[in-house]
Amino acid sequence: MNAKKLLISIATSVALAGTLPLAHAGAPITAIHGTSAKPTVVLVHGAFADSSSWNGVAKRLIAKGYPVLSVANPLRGVASDAQYTASVIGAIKGPLVLVGHSYGGMVISKAAEGNPEVKALVYVAAFAPEQGETVAELAGKFPGGTLGDTLADPVTLADGGKDLYINQGKFAQQFAADVPSQQAALMAAGQRPVTVAALNEAANGSAWKQLPSYFVYGTADRNIPLEGLRFMAKRANAKDIVEVKGASHVLMVSRADVVAKVIEEAADNK
After folding, report:
1. pLDDT over threshold 60, residue 33
2. What are the transmembrane regions (predicted)?
3. Residue 20 above 50 pLDDT?
């Protein structure tokens, strides 16, 4: 096909697209391999991670018949990230279980509000804020966190904001000490940055006050001090609290089986 015919073909296709009904317009989001008998599990990653950090957990849940959706958390700001996540879950049909890791806990604590389909919240080494609290405040509430010493120099953005990364040479020890070294190196290379503003933005949602919450975290977490995690879990009056001895901040990677079981428990409302 010559260039002229190709352009005519493209123009015709575009014109027809405007006149044909869209088969999926307005249709709810559905996750593959799910069954209508089980709630959809929505996984929200935190700072310095990405959606692939949930792969081990998702694999186990899908095998049990749970619909699963892993949200690409923008990591730009608590309110905007929560709004984005709320839009995603608002398009999902049926009951939901929201799962947040680390900063993702800030996000689900707001995104769940006002959505009657959300049945439970699961905090995986995650922040469960009270109104007005920030990540920086909660992380520093108890001694023991070492994240600040491992951060690379901030990257200045076009809008004047600043992005934060963990120094790749320090990533494994700080973030993923119980993850195989080659896998941790890949995680370091693919880490998603979070803005400085997001870590200092006050929470405007605390859905754990209205919904059943479940907590699972490692005793060797270096991002959020263990006493801080215990404090938030107790404050939320969690239905279950699972402490995993020796697990790092990314226990959804290193201990995916344990995390998946807690999510199943939440989904079954046990």
Report:
1. no
2. none
3. no
Other CB atoms within 10 Å distance of the CB of residue 12: 10
The conformation of residue 64, written as its DSSP 8-state character, comes to T
The reported pLDDT for the residue numbered 37 is 83
Q: Which residues contact 13 (CB under 8 A, 6 or more apart)?
A: none
- Residue 86 amino acid letter: A
Residue 99 placed within a domain:
yes
Residue pair 162/153 in contact by the 8 Å Cβ criterion: no
Distance CA 13, CA 263 (A): 45
Number of domains comprising the chain? 1
Q: Which two tokens stand for residue 264?
A: 């199943």
Give the 3-state secondary structure of residue 167. Answer: coil
* 19 occurs within a structural domain: no
Q: Which two tokens stand for residue 13?
A: 């296709």
Residue 67 structural domain: 31-267
CATH of the domain at 169: 3.40.50.1820
47 with 192: CB under 8 angstroms? yes
